[in-house]
Amino acid sequence: MKKVLCLLIVFLIGVQVWAAKDFVPAELDVVYPRKTIVTIKSPSTFFVGSTDPDLPLTINGKPVTVRPSGAFARQVPLNNGKNVFTLVSGTQKAVYIIDRPIPVSASRAKPVFSGYEQPLAVLTTKDNTALRSTPVNAGINRIAHYQKHTPLLVDGHQGDFFRVRLAPDQTAWVFKGDVGVNEGEVGPAALKKQEQADNREFYIFNFEFDRKLPYVIQENPFQVTFYGVSGLDTYTFTPKIPTQKLTGYSGNFHGNKFVLKIRKEVNGAKVLNGTKCLKGMKIAIDAGHGGSESGAIGCFRDLEKNINLYIAKYLEAELLARGADVVMTRHGDSYMGLCERVDAANEKDAVVLVSIHANSLPDNSDPNTHRGTSVYYYYDQAKPLAQSILTAMTTQLGLPDDGVRQASFALTRNTQAVTVLVETAYMINPYDIELLRNKRFQLSAAKAIADGITNYLNK
Protein backbone atom coordinates (compact mmCIF):
# COMPACT_ATOMS: atom_id res chain seq x y z
CA MET A 1 0.00 0.00 0.00
CA LYS A 2 2.80 2.45 0.93
CA LYS A 3 4.55 1.69 -2.38
CA VAL A 4 1.37 2.48 -4.33
CA LEU A 5 0.91 5.76 -2.46
CA CYS A 6 4.52 6.79 -3.10
CA LEU A 7 4.06 6.10 -6.82
CA LEU A 8 0.85 8.16 -6.75
CA ILE A 9 2.66 11.15 -5.24
CA VAL A 10 5.47 10.85 -7.82
CA PHE A 11 2.84 10.74 -10.58
CA LEU A 12 1.07 13.80 -9.23
CA ILE A 13 4.33 15.74 -9.21
CA GLY A 14 5.03 14.65 -12.77
CA VAL A 15 1.72 15.85 -14.21
CA GLN A 16 2.09 19.44 -13.08
CA VAL A 17 2.35 21.74 -16.05
CA TRP A 18 5.19 23.98 -14.97
CA ALA A 19 8.85 23.11 -14.59
CA ALA A 20 10.43 22.18 -11.27
CA LYS A 21 12.82 25.12 -11.41
CA ASP A 22 11.52 28.62 -10.75
CA PHE A 23 10.03 30.38 -13.73
CA VAL A 24 11.57 33.82 -14.29
CA PRO A 25 9.66 35.93 -16.86
CA ALA A 26 11.53 37.83 -19.56
CA GLU A 27 8.68 40.15 -20.53
CA LEU A 28 6.28 42.48 -18.76
CA ASP A 29 3.01 40.59 -18.27
CA VAL A 30 0.14 42.36 -16.51
CA VAL A 31 -2.45 39.90 -15.24
CA TYR A 32 -4.77 42.45 -13.64
CA PRO A 33 -6.45 44.63 -14.81
CA ARG A 34 -7.34 42.14 -17.51
CA LYS A 35 -7.79 44.78 -20.24
CA THR A 36 -5.92 47.97 -21.07
CA ILE A 37 -9.15 50.00 -21.12
CA VAL A 38 -11.49 49.22 -18.21
CA THR A 39 -14.09 50.76 -15.92
CA ILE A 40 -13.63 50.24 -12.17
CA LYS A 41 -16.06 51.68 -9.61
CA SER A 42 -13.67 51.87 -6.69
CA PRO A 43 -11.42 54.42 -4.94
CA SER A 44 -8.42 52.23 -5.80
CA THR A 45 -7.35 49.17 -7.72
CA PHE A 46 -4.11 47.24 -8.22
CA PHE A 47 -1.72 46.03 -10.89
CA VAL A 48 -0.64 42.39 -10.62
CA GLY A 49 1.71 40.49 -12.89
CA SER A 50 5.30 39.50 -13.58
CA THR A 51 8.36 40.93 -15.30
CA ASP A 52 12.13 40.54 -15.58
CA PRO A 53 13.37 41.00 -11.98
CA ASP A 54 16.71 42.37 -13.20
CA LEU A 55 15.01 45.38 -14.77
CA PRO A 56 13.47 48.31 -12.86
CA LEU A 57 9.66 48.48 -13.01
CA THR A 58 7.79 51.77 -12.65
CA ILE A 59 4.14 52.83 -12.72
CA ASN A 60 3.79 56.48 -13.72
CA GLY A 61 7.44 56.92 -12.87
CA LYS A 62 7.21 55.48 -9.37
CA PRO A 63 9.31 52.37 -8.64
CA VAL A 64 7.55 49.07 -7.98
CA THR A 65 9.05 46.29 -5.88
CA VAL A 66 9.60 43.12 -7.92
CA ARG A 67 10.26 39.77 -6.27
CA PRO A 68 13.34 37.76 -7.39
CA SER A 69 10.85 35.46 -9.11
CA GLY A 70 9.54 38.39 -11.15
CA ALA A 71 6.16 38.66 -9.40
CA PHE A 72 4.82 42.08 -8.49
CA ALA A 73 1.69 43.79 -7.16
CA ARG A 74 1.01 47.48 -6.60
CA GLN A 75 -2.09 49.26 -5.33
CA VAL A 76 -2.94 52.54 -7.07
CA PRO A 77 -5.53 55.21 -6.21
CA LEU A 78 -8.24 56.14 -8.70
CA ASN A 79 -9.60 59.63 -9.28
CA ASN A 80 -13.06 60.23 -10.66
CA GLY A 81 -12.97 60.08 -14.46
CA LYS A 82 -10.13 58.72 -16.57
CA ASN A 83 -6.90 57.54 -15.00
CA VAL A 84 -3.88 56.82 -17.20
CA PHE A 85 -1.18 54.48 -15.94
CA THR A 86 2.07 53.80 -17.79
CA LEU A 87 4.08 50.74 -16.76
CA VAL A 88 7.71 50.62 -17.89
CA SER A 89 10.08 47.67 -17.51
CA GLY A 90 13.35 48.07 -19.42
CA THR A 91 12.38 48.82 -23.01
CA GLN A 92 8.84 47.52 -22.56
CA LYS A 93 5.90 49.79 -21.93
CA ALA A 94 2.19 49.20 -21.27
CA VAL A 95 -0.48 51.89 -21.00
CA TYR A 96 -3.74 51.37 -19.10
CA ILE A 97 -6.76 53.67 -19.09
CA ILE A 98 -9.03 53.10 -16.10
CA ASP A 99 -12.29 54.99 -15.94
CA ARG A 100 -13.80 55.56 -12.52
CA PRO A 101 -17.38 56.81 -13.04
CA ILE A 102 -18.30 59.91 -11.09
CA PRO A 103 -20.60 58.73 -8.27
CA VAL A 104 -24.20 59.85 -8.69
CA SER A 105 -25.43 61.27 -5.40
CA ALA A 106 -28.97 59.97 -5.57
CA SER A 107 -30.75 59.68 -2.26
CA ARG A 108 -32.31 56.25 -2.05
CA ALA A 109 -35.16 55.87 0.35
CA LYS A 110 -34.66 53.11 2.90
CA PRO A 111 -37.38 50.44 2.63
CA VAL A 112 -39.96 50.64 5.39
CA PHE A 113 -42.14 47.86 6.75
CA SER A 114 -45.76 47.73 5.63
CA GLY A 115 -48.04 45.36 7.53
CA TYR A 116 -51.10 43.51 6.22
CA GLU A 117 -54.55 43.64 7.76
CA GLN A 118 -54.84 39.89 7.24
CA PRO A 119 -51.84 37.50 7.02
CA LEU A 120 -51.18 35.97 3.61
CA ALA A 121 -50.54 32.23 3.15
CA VAL A 122 -47.64 31.46 0.78
CA LEU A 123 -45.61 28.44 -0.35
CA THR A 124 -41.91 28.23 -1.09
CA THR A 125 -41.36 27.69 -4.80
CA LYS A 126 -37.92 26.05 -4.77
CA ASP A 127 -35.69 23.90 -2.60
CA ASN A 128 -33.17 25.54 -0.26
CA THR A 129 -35.29 28.65 0.18
CA ALA A 130 -33.55 30.72 2.86
CA LEU A 131 -35.40 31.92 5.94
CA ARG A 132 -33.46 34.93 7.23
CA SER A 133 -33.27 36.87 10.48
CA THR A 134 -33.07 40.22 8.63
CA PRO A 135 -34.50 41.48 5.29
CA VAL A 136 -31.12 41.36 3.57
CA ASN A 137 -30.34 38.90 0.79
CA ALA A 138 -26.74 38.25 1.90
CA GLY A 139 -24.53 37.60 4.91
CA ILE A 140 -24.80 35.19 7.83
CA ASN A 141 -28.47 35.84 8.56
CA ARG A 142 -29.81 32.48 7.38
CA ILE A 143 -31.70 30.60 10.09
CA ALA A 144 -33.28 27.79 8.04
CA HIS A 145 -33.44 26.34 4.53
CA TYR A 146 -36.79 25.02 3.33
CA GLN A 147 -37.81 22.55 0.69
CA LYS A 148 -40.18 23.40 -2.11
CA HIS A 149 -43.86 23.74 -1.08
CA THR A 150 -43.21 24.62 2.57
CA PRO A 151 -46.15 26.75 3.79
CA LEU A 152 -45.46 30.10 5.45
CA LEU A 153 -47.65 32.85 6.85
CA VAL A 154 -46.55 36.41 6.01
CA ASP A 155 -47.90 39.51 7.74
CA GLY A 156 -46.22 42.30 5.77
CA HIS A 157 -43.35 43.27 3.53
CA GLN A 158 -40.25 45.45 3.46
CA GLY A 159 -38.43 46.05 0.21
CA ASP A 160 -37.87 42.72 -1.55
CA PHE A 161 -38.86 40.63 1.49
CA PHE A 162 -42.00 39.29 3.13
CA ARG A 163 -42.03 39.14 6.92
CA VAL A 164 -42.83 35.61 8.08
CA ARG A 165 -44.88 35.15 11.22
CA LEU A 166 -43.49 32.04 12.90
CA ALA A 167 -45.16 32.62 16.27
CA PRO A 168 -46.98 35.56 17.91
CA ASP A 169 -43.66 36.86 19.25
CA GLN A 170 -41.27 35.56 16.58
CA THR A 171 -40.80 36.66 12.97
CA ALA A 172 -38.32 36.10 10.15
CA TRP A 173 -37.94 37.10 6.49
CA VAL A 174 -38.18 35.39 3.11
CA PHE A 175 -37.28 36.76 -0.33
CA LYS A 176 -40.42 37.59 -2.32
CA GLY A 177 -39.11 35.80 -5.40
CA ASP A 178 -38.84 32.52 -3.48
CA VAL A 179 -42.55 32.15 -2.61
CA GLY A 180 -45.95 32.07 -4.30
CA VAL A 181 -49.57 32.21 -3.14
CA ASN A 182 -50.71 29.11 -1.24
CA GLU A 183 -53.96 28.04 -2.85
CA GLY A 184 -54.23 24.82 -0.87
CA GLU A 185 -55.44 24.02 2.62
CA VAL A 186 -54.03 26.28 5.32
CA GLY A 187 -54.04 26.20 9.10
CA PRO A 188 -52.20 24.52 11.97
CA ALA A 189 -50.53 21.14 11.35
CA ALA A 190 -51.41 18.21 13.59
CA LEU A 191 -48.56 16.14 15.07
CA LYS A 192 -49.85 12.61 14.54
CA LYS A 193 -46.86 10.52 15.61
CA GLN A 194 -43.36 10.86 17.07
CA GLU A 195 -40.82 8.05 17.37
CA GLN A 196 -37.10 7.33 17.61
CA ALA A 197 -35.50 4.79 15.27
CA ASP A 198 -31.70 4.91 15.63
CA ASN A 199 -29.22 3.00 13.52
CA ARG A 200 -25.50 2.29 13.92
CA GLU A 201 -24.38 5.74 12.81
CA PHE A 202 -27.23 8.12 13.63
CA TYR A 203 -29.79 9.04 16.23
CA ILE A 204 -32.98 9.29 14.18
CA PHE A 205 -36.18 11.03 15.24
CA ASN A 206 -39.34 10.89 13.12
CA PHE A 207 -42.21 13.38 13.42
CA GLU A 208 -45.33 12.67 11.38
CA PHE A 209 -47.59 15.67 10.68
CA ASP A 210 -50.66 15.97 8.50
CA ARG A 211 -48.87 18.63 6.42
CA LYS A 212 -45.51 20.40 6.16
CA LEU A 213 -44.78 23.33 8.44
CA PRO A 214 -41.88 25.72 9.11
CA TYR A 215 -39.14 24.81 11.57
CA VAL A 216 -35.77 26.05 12.83
CA ILE A 217 -32.84 23.90 14.00
CA GLN A 218 -30.32 25.43 16.40
CA GLU A 219 -27.08 23.99 17.76
CA ASN A 220 -26.44 25.52 21.20
CA PRO A 221 -28.33 23.85 22.79
CA PHE A 222 -29.30 21.48 20.00
CA GLN A 223 -33.04 21.55 19.38
CA VAL A 224 -35.61 21.79 16.62
CA THR A 225 -38.62 24.09 16.90
CA PHE A 226 -41.77 23.52 14.80
CA TYR A 227 -44.13 26.43 14.18
CA GLY A 228 -47.88 26.22 13.65
CA VAL A 229 -48.59 22.96 15.49
CA SER A 230 -52.23 22.31 16.37
CA GLY A 231 -52.98 22.98 20.05
CA LEU A 232 -49.37 23.99 20.76
CA ASP A 233 -48.59 26.69 18.22
CA THR A 234 -44.84 26.20 18.87
CA TYR A 235 -43.33 22.80 19.66
CA THR A 236 -39.65 22.60 20.64
CA PHE A 237 -37.95 19.21 20.69
CA THR A 238 -34.64 18.68 22.50
CA PRO A 239 -33.22 15.22 21.75
CA LYS A 240 -32.09 13.16 24.71
CA ILE A 241 -28.75 11.85 23.55
CA PRO A 242 -25.36 11.40 25.22
CA THR A 243 -23.31 14.59 25.54
CA GLN A 244 -21.06 14.81 22.52
CA LYS A 245 -19.65 17.27 20.03
CA LEU A 246 -21.75 17.64 16.90
CA THR A 247 -20.27 15.91 13.88
CA GLY A 248 -23.12 16.24 11.41
CA TYR A 249 -26.89 16.39 11.38
CA SER A 250 -29.79 16.95 9.01
CA GLY A 251 -33.49 17.70 9.23
CA ASN A 252 -35.87 17.46 6.27
CA PHE A 253 -39.44 16.63 5.36
CA HIS A 254 -40.10 13.43 3.43
CA GLY A 255 -43.69 14.00 2.42
CA ASN A 256 -45.34 14.99 5.69
CA LYS A 257 -42.75 13.19 7.84
CA PHE A 258 -39.94 15.25 9.30
CA VAL A 259 -36.76 13.20 9.83
CA LEU A 260 -34.08 14.51 12.19
CA LYS A 261 -30.71 12.72 12.03
CA ILE A 262 -27.83 13.42 14.41
CA ARG A 263 -24.56 11.59 13.83
CA LYS A 264 -23.41 9.51 16.77
CA GLU A 265 -20.02 10.36 18.21
CA VAL A 266 -17.35 9.53 15.68
CA ASN A 267 -14.53 7.21 16.70
CA GLY A 268 -11.60 9.60 16.55
CA ALA A 269 -8.16 9.13 15.08
CA LYS A 270 -6.09 6.41 16.68
CA VAL A 271 -2.35 5.84 16.95
CA LEU A 272 -1.24 2.66 15.22
CA ASN A 273 2.45 1.79 15.07
CA GLY A 274 3.30 5.40 15.77
CA THR A 275 1.17 6.68 12.86
CA LYS A 276 -2.05 8.63 13.12
CA CYS A 277 -4.76 6.45 11.60
CA LEU A 278 -8.14 7.49 10.20
CA LYS A 279 -9.17 3.97 9.29
CA GLY A 280 -12.71 3.85 7.98
CA MET A 281 -13.28 7.60 8.40
CA LYS A 282 -15.18 9.08 5.44
CA ILE A 283 -13.66 12.40 4.40
CA ALA A 284 -14.67 14.45 1.35
CA ILE A 285 -12.24 16.76 -0.46
CA ASP A 286 -13.49 19.48 -2.79
CA ALA A 287 -11.03 21.11 -5.19
CA GLY A 288 -12.60 24.53 -5.69
CA HIS A 289 -13.61 25.74 -9.17
CA GLY A 290 -12.79 23.68 -12.29
CA GLY A 291 -13.63 23.51 -15.98
CA SER A 292 -14.95 26.83 -17.27
CA GLU A 293 -14.68 28.31 -13.77
CA SER A 294 -10.99 29.15 -13.37
CA GLY A 295 -11.15 31.00 -10.06
CA ALA A 296 -8.46 33.57 -9.30
CA ILE A 297 -5.44 34.15 -11.57
CA GLY A 298 -1.98 34.46 -10.04
CA CYS A 299 0.89 36.80 -10.85
CA PHE A 300 2.28 34.28 -13.38
CA ARG A 301 -1.16 33.46 -14.84
CA ASP A 302 -1.44 30.28 -12.80
CA LEU A 303 -5.12 29.34 -12.47
CA GLU A 304 -6.56 28.77 -9.02
CA LYS A 305 -8.55 25.75 -10.21
CA ASN A 306 -5.30 23.91 -11.03
CA ILE A 307 -3.52 24.74 -7.78
CA ASN A 308 -6.62 23.70 -5.82
CA LEU A 309 -6.63 20.35 -7.61
CA TYR A 310 -2.92 19.73 -7.02
CA ILE A 311 -3.30 20.30 -3.28
CA ALA A 312 -6.54 18.28 -3.17
CA LYS A 313 -4.84 15.29 -4.81
CA TYR A 314 -1.91 15.46 -2.42
CA LEU A 315 -4.40 15.64 0.45
CA GLU A 316 -6.21 12.62 -0.95
CA ALA A 317 -2.96 10.62 -0.97
CA GLU A 318 -2.12 11.78 2.58
CA LEU A 319 -5.53 10.80 3.97
CA LEU A 320 -5.52 7.45 2.14
CA ALA A 321 -2.14 6.72 3.76
CA ARG A 322 -3.83 7.29 7.13
CA GLY A 323 -6.58 4.82 6.32
CA ALA A 324 -9.42 7.20 5.51
CA ASP A 325 -12.14 6.57 2.94
CA VAL A 326 -11.77 9.59 0.66
CA VAL A 327 -14.44 11.14 -1.56
CA MET A 328 -13.20 13.57 -4.26
CA THR A 329 -15.79 15.93 -5.73
CA ARG A 330 -13.65 16.22 -8.86
CA HIS A 331 -10.56 14.34 -10.05
CA GLY A 332 -9.81 16.44 -13.13
CA ASP A 333 -10.44 19.78 -14.78
CA SER A 334 -14.22 19.55 -14.85
CA TYR A 335 -17.00 21.96 -13.92
CA MET A 336 -19.24 20.99 -11.01
CA GLY A 337 -22.05 23.01 -9.44
CA LEU A 338 -21.85 24.01 -5.79
CA CYS A 339 -24.89 21.97 -4.76
CA GLU A 340 -23.52 18.98 -6.69
CA ARG A 341 -20.32 19.14 -4.65
CA VAL A 342 -22.25 19.07 -1.37
CA ASP A 343 -24.49 16.27 -2.65
CA ALA A 344 -21.45 14.20 -3.66
CA ALA A 345 -20.11 14.39 -0.10
CA ASN A 346 -23.47 13.71 1.54
CA GLU A 347 -24.34 10.78 -0.73
CA LYS A 348 -21.19 9.03 0.53
CA ASP A 349 -22.07 10.06 4.11
CA ALA A 350 -18.81 11.94 4.68
CA VAL A 351 -18.08 12.98 8.26
CA VAL A 352 -15.83 15.86 7.17
CA LEU A 353 -15.93 17.98 3.99
CA VAL A 354 -13.00 20.28 3.21
CA SER A 355 -13.11 22.63 0.22
CA ILE A 356 -9.68 23.76 -1.04
CA HIS A 357 -9.27 27.28 -2.46
CA ALA A 358 -6.63 29.99 -2.96
CA ASN A 359 -7.57 33.55 -2.10
CA SER A 360 -7.94 36.74 -4.10
CA LEU A 361 -9.07 40.30 -3.37
CA PRO A 362 -11.54 42.86 -4.66
CA ASP A 363 -10.57 46.31 -5.89
CA ASN A 364 -9.82 48.82 -3.12
CA SER A 365 -7.55 46.26 -1.41
CA ASP A 366 -3.76 46.01 -1.25
CA PRO A 367 -2.42 42.63 -2.46
CA ASN A 368 0.89 43.23 -0.69
CA THR A 369 -0.63 43.51 2.78
CA HIS A 370 -2.88 40.44 2.50
CA ARG A 371 -1.06 37.16 3.02
CA GLY A 372 -1.54 33.80 4.63
CA THR A 373 -4.18 31.20 5.36
CA SER A 374 -7.79 31.62 6.39
CA VAL A 375 -10.46 28.98 7.08
CA TYR A 376 -14.18 29.61 6.78
CA TYR A 377 -17.12 27.92 8.49
CA TYR A 378 -20.83 28.72 8.85
CA TYR A 379 -22.31 26.54 11.60
CA ASP A 380 -20.85 26.31 15.09
CA GLN A 381 -20.19 22.57 14.78
CA ALA A 382 -17.51 23.29 12.15
CA LYS A 383 -15.61 26.04 13.98
CA PRO A 384 -13.32 23.65 15.95
CA LEU A 385 -12.30 21.92 12.70
CA ALA A 386 -11.59 25.30 11.07
CA GLN A 387 -9.38 26.31 13.99
CA SER A 388 -7.57 22.96 14.01
CA ILE A 389 -6.71 23.21 10.29
CA LEU A 390 -5.62 26.85 10.58
CA THR A 391 -3.38 26.07 13.55
CA ALA A 392 -1.71 23.18 11.72
CA MET A 393 -1.13 25.21 8.56
CA THR A 394 0.23 28.36 10.19
CA THR A 395 2.43 26.33 12.55
CA GLN A 396 3.86 23.93 9.99
CA LEU A 397 4.09 26.23 6.98
CA GLY A 398 5.00 29.48 8.71
CA LEU A 399 2.15 31.26 6.96
CA PRO A 400 0.51 34.34 8.49
CA ASP A 401 -2.72 33.65 10.36
CA ASP A 402 -5.43 35.26 8.23
CA GLY A 403 -8.17 34.12 10.59
CA VAL A 404 -11.01 31.69 11.20
CA ARG A 405 -14.10 33.38 9.81
CA GLN A 406 -17.81 32.72 9.64
CA ALA A 407 -19.14 33.11 6.10
CA SER A 408 -22.22 32.09 4.14
CA PHE A 409 -20.72 30.05 1.30
CA ALA A 410 -22.71 27.26 -0.36
CA LEU A 411 -20.07 24.72 0.73
CA THR A 412 -19.91 25.87 4.35
CA ARG A 413 -23.71 25.80 4.77
CA ASN A 414 -23.73 22.01 4.67
CA THR A 415 -24.66 20.47 8.06
CA GLN A 416 -24.64 16.74 7.27
CA ALA A 417 -20.84 16.78 7.39
CA VAL A 418 -18.59 19.06 9.40
CA THR A 419 -17.71 21.43 6.58
CA VAL A 420 -15.03 24.11 6.14
CA LEU A 421 -13.48 26.05 3.26
CA VAL A 422 -9.69 26.55 3.32
CA GLU A 423 -8.06 29.53 1.59
CA THR A 424 -4.50 28.22 1.50
CA ALA A 425 -2.83 31.53 0.51
CA TYR A 426 -3.31 34.51 -1.83
CA MET A 427 -3.00 34.06 -5.59
CA ILE A 428 -2.28 37.76 -6.18
CA ASN A 429 0.24 38.28 -3.39
CA PRO A 430 3.74 38.15 -4.97
CA TYR A 431 5.18 36.12 -2.07
CA ASP A 432 2.23 33.75 -1.58
CA ILE A 433 2.00 32.84 -5.28
CA GLU A 434 5.61 31.66 -5.21
CA LEU A 435 4.59 29.22 -2.49
CA LEU A 436 1.34 28.13 -4.10
CA ARG A 437 3.01 27.12 -7.37
CA ASN A 438 5.77 25.19 -5.55
CA LYS A 439 5.28 21.40 -5.38
CA ARG A 440 6.90 21.04 -1.99
CA PHE A 441 4.62 23.69 -0.55
CA GLN A 442 1.59 21.97 -2.03
CA LEU A 443 2.63 18.69 -0.42
CA SER A 444 3.30 20.41 2.90
CA ALA A 445 -0.04 22.23 2.77
CA ALA A 446 -1.83 18.94 2.14
CA LYS A 447 -0.05 17.31 5.08
CA ALA A 448 -0.91 20.25 7.36
CA ILE A 449 -4.59 20.08 6.38
CA ALA A 450 -4.56 16.33 7.02
CA ASP A 451 -2.98 16.92 10.42
CA GLY A 452 -5.64 19.50 11.21
CA ILE A 453 -8.37 17.02 10.34
CA THR A 454 -6.67 14.26 12.32
CA ASN A 455 -6.16 16.44 15.38
CA TYR A 456 -9.80 17.54 15.27
CA LEU A 457 -11.09 13.96 15.09
CA ASN A 458 -8.64 12.87 17.78
CA LYS A 459 -10.20 15.28 20.28
- CATH top level of the largest domain is Alpha Beta
CATH topology of the largest domain: Aminopeptidase
Alpha-carbon distance between the two ends: 27 Å
Sum up the overall morphology in one term. Answer: flat
Rounded Rg = 26 Å
Fraction of helical residues: 10-25%
Biggest pleated-sheet summary: 7 strands, antiparallel
Secondary structural class: alpha+beta
The fourth-level CATH homologous superfamily of the largest domain is Zn-dependent exopeptidases
Amount of beta strand: 35-45%
Looking at the overall shape, the CATH architecture of the largest domain is 3-Layer(aba) Sandwich
Could you explain the architecture of this structure?
This protein has 459 residues and is α+β, with helices and mostly antiparallel strands. It has four domains: 2-15 and 267-458, Aminopeptidase (3-Layer(aba) Sandwich); 29-100, Sandwich (Immunoglobulin-like), CATH 2.60.40; 114-181, SH3 Domains (SH3 type barrels); 191-263, Immunoglobulin-like (Sandwich). It is 18% helix and 38% strand. The protein has six helices and 30 strands. It has a seven-stranded antiparallel sheet, with no helix packed on it. A six-stranded mixed sheet has the order 26-25-27-30-28-29, with helices on both faces. The protein is flat, with a radius of gyration of 26 Å. The two termini are 27 Å apart. The model is unreliable at 2-21 (pLDDT under 50).
